[in-house]
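ok so i was messing around last nite and threw this chain in just to see what happens. nothing serious, just curious
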Amino acid sequence: MERDLNQINVIPLVDVMLVLLVIVLTTATFISTGQVPVSLAKAKETSARQGAPIVVTLTAEGDLFLNDRAVEEGGLLSRLQTYQKDSPVVVRADRVTLLERFVSLVDEIRGLGFHQVSLEVVKL
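result:
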């Protein structure tokens, strides 16, 4: 009894696609930057960073991190005083962060004498 083969067998195709998906997802976790997860704001124009700046991260929940290390409430100023005042500071703020909290953070940093304070964004 012969059977016509007029259909494509998609089961091997699905198997191959699932294997490729697992490989991509596995390698993507190793490629991640290791930074605190923050959903950055988007901008059309961005500038390249020169050197290694001091990175201050403000999460959506209001948690502060200095160079990916958690900072207790009110401890940012004492931790920043150990850095040179001419060092560039990059603020990574979540896009849902209240503007008032972001402005007060930048004001605190500039009050310590850091004048090269910038906001990290994602280019559109």
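not much to say yet. Residues 72 and 98 are 19 Å apart (CA to CA).
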